[in-house]
Design a protein that fits this description.
Blueprint lengths: L13 H18 L1 E5 H20 L5 H15 L2 H14 L8 E8 L6 E7 L4 H4 L19 H45 L1
Antiparallel strand pairs: 1-3, 2-3
Helix pairs in contact: 1-2, 1-4, 2-3, 2-4, 3-4
InterPro entries: Ribosomal_bL17, Ribosomal_bL17_CS, Ribosomal_bL17_sf
Keywords: Ribonucleoprotein, Ribosomal protein
GO cellular component, one term: ribosome
Length: about 200
């Protein structure tokens, strides 16, 4: 019986499996999406998401913990260029996302062996899915009542004072059409005199 055994061995020994997941994770970080089988994509999701969380945490922690997180990521990825990309570009892009950094999209079956294929991608780097969604504003929520401050109250009063001034400008605007209509009358009088 295999009760409680959650690791998918993917038909490989442990060293081969770890090397394969490290290579796939580096490719995912570099290219932002890769095509693979569904089983490998699910295994990769479990492998790479904790590393992305560690890269995010570096910005909020001290230098010692940031170095520690980089060393753990390097132990798993085994590629310093992928670690650098992860901690610079990817961590900035996913900074406000609370998990769920990757998406698996099933593509159908492979022609050669009929294996279920999938595309795994980093969610924040897909412009097509994120185009229609407005960016969330990072506002602080408060449960207190909405009292206006003195500065806001004075701005409201100044806006009310300026409105009557705008009404005084209206007679000047009305005077301009009258001035324009006078030349038309003069043109009509000249036409009458010619007859």
């Amino acid at each position: 019986m295999r009760h409680g055994k959650k690791v998918n061995h993917l038909g490989r020994k442990s060293a081969h499996r770890k090397a394969m997941l490290a290579n796939m994770a580096c490719s995912l970080i570099e290219h932002k999406r890769i095509n693979t089988t569904v089983a490998k994509a699910k295994a990769l999701k479990q492998f790479v998401e904790p590393l992305i969380t560690r890269s995010k945490a570096e910005n909020n922690q001290s230098a010692e913990k940031g170095t520690h997180n980089r060393r753990i990521a390097f132990k798993n990825l085994r590629d310093k260029y992928a670690v650098n990309e992860l901690f610079s570009v990817v961590s900035e892009k996913v900074a406000d996302r609370p998990g769920g950094y990757t998406r698996i999209i099933k593509l159908g079956n492979r022609l050669g062996d009929n294996a279920d294929m999938a595309m795994i991608e980093l969610v924040d780097f897909n412009e097509l899915y994120n185009a229609g969604k407005p960016k969330k504003k990072s506002t602080r929520r408060s449960r207190r009542g909405g009292k206006t401050s003195n500065a806001e109250a004075t701005k409201v009063e100044e806006a009310e004072v300026k409105e009557p001034v705008a009404d005084e400008a209206d007679p000047e605007v009305e005077a301009k059409p009258e001035a324009e209509s006078q030349p038309e009358n003069e043109v009509k009088k000249e036409d009458d005199s010619k007859e």
